[in-house]
Task: structure prediction
Amino acid sequence: MGWGGWFHKRPRPAPAAVLLGLETLEDRLTPSGTPLLRGIEPLQDARTLSTPDVVTTSAPSNVYPWGTAIDLGTGFSDATFISNSSLQLENFALRTNGTLVQRSQTTSGAWSNWLVIGTEIRSFSVGRHANGRLELFVIGRDNALFTRVQSRPAGAWNGWIRHEGSFRDVSVFQHQDGRLEVFLIGTASALFQRIQNAPNGSWSGINRLGGSFQKVKLALHADGRGEMLGLTTSGQLVSRSQNAVRGSWTAWQNVRNSVVDFDLLRGANNRLEAFAVTQSGSLMQRSQTAPNGSWGNWASIGFGIKQVDAVVSSDGRLQLFGLNNAGKTMARSRVPTTTAWSAWEDLGSTRRILATASGPQGQVELLFLDTRGRMIERSQMVSLPIPDSTRAWNLNAMRATEVWSRGFSGKGIIVAVLDTGVDINHPDLAGNIWTNTKEIPGNGKDDDNNGFVDDRNGWDFVQQDNRPEDLNGHGTHVAGTIAALKNGFGVTGVAPQVKVMPVQVLSSTGKGSSFDIDRGIRYAVDNGARIINISIGGNFNNAAVVDAISYARSKGVLIVVGAGNDAEQTPSFPAIYSRQFDNVVSVGSHNSASVQSPTTNHVGTSRAVQVDAPGEQIYSTALSAGYRTMSGTSMAAPQVSALAALVLSANPNLTPGQLRKIIVDSADRPISSSDSRGGVDAVAAIDLALSSPYLAV
Result:
């Protein structure tokens, strides 16, 4: 069958300009071979090390109530959900007459009216490109494949394009690097595959993956490798794995016999979860023993089941749905910190489960056909918890809330976070992520001529793309301390109206290079950041970083750096540059009793300018819409970055040198056992910024 050019040709993003000479992350070594830039240094207490203190927004019973069932009408045969570029859900549904319709969710949670976007359709799937545009893949009545793509994210749809072949089903998945992969089951049940060569790029040729398949599912390991499950026409559940990211696949292996349905996904704990329904009605589950690890044994978690569907909610719960032999959709859930499931809950009489999805606030959406053939919608009513006041001790110690009451909360200030990236979809951060308004999203062009294509929400200097995603959690924790929304749940940042600019300079393992630090500083300065937070430490002394700091000073940008956690008598690099530049401040850590953390690097005789800030047991945002406690100067630095933003929102005309002097001179002296300038004080800093001579600036 001919496949030549059945996908549109899209321009590939032009590579960003880079400096020559350094090509690896571990770019410079000491004579002993030790990397000069050690990366992130969060000092975690023993309790965190032994049992990760990841607090999800789940109710204690693992269960949230479900809203009233909504009757969406009759004449539907299939449906799916996908999130759009604005993090809201899009719902696509296929009617029995072959008409494909679409509706969109607003920020309030309400749904738009159905819009007809296709006719004469047998089956469909939808994927989201790395540039945010959605693309539809449908099988027509004549078994041919058709595609259409949005002209821009959330925009109008381009025309349909027909492609050769004879198929009965299609499904599409997105890889960690943004590439889409399409699977097609032919009319003779053979399985075919085609994948993009790069995000938003061209497509590979067709590959035949085997014969006699009913259904396939793809999930991604924590390291980005693909894992595929397939159900054959004979009822065998088979699996295969990638040997490496973007690597070859192992041969198919049989993992379960006599299977009628299955599901595969990755949980919030980064372990893959597989579910299988046997011909006898047993619901079986198996999990990876660790992220990227081996698989555990199959275990029975239900009986009398004939269909299964699972979804991970945005607050980290694993929500499971099973259609039982009595015609009921049953639901149960599990939080990442436990292996125990909640009790089964009856959600209504059901003919078939159609679709499930996780909403941006932790809720779960469910669509099913009831026994009358009508499509029913159920939505989970989620109330995200407010943490107890002891978790927000840093706000009280800095007197941040008193400053908010005076109208200063960082509005209009951009703080760049040079780190492992930021989870821009976290419900406590999504509203405060910086947007490059000069860049048209998803058009593959450098609209603002800054050297970076489609950098709508920052840049990843590790992977050299426009997706500064956090797979580590460190950068997300830092960002939450600075600017988590004041929205009544989760946590609140010290400057809750600041815009955070994600600039990824560290890999998922916390490793990076001075080369990327240099480029990250320059990117942040050139794109409007007034403050740069660098919760990174090492023993490098790099001329390029020095030049970047000097450049930031010339453009009016303050750089805040964690002092390091080695109990040394001098701050680590780049914090020690505070002795050389008046736009750099080094930050040590203190606890809730105003005692400097014993592992914090001191000033000693280095002449570095250092203040202390809350840095022990700091509760902030975590991956998978969760929250966690971390400690160290990595957690102290963002407190000062946020404080600087509060001061600038009160007096935006300050130079970096004046801003640093205000923070230092207003510090509450002394912090016990500290050789720093003292612990930071937001009220005193604002008062000083609004006094003469600073007010006249």
User: Anything to note?
Assistant: The mean pLDDT is 86.
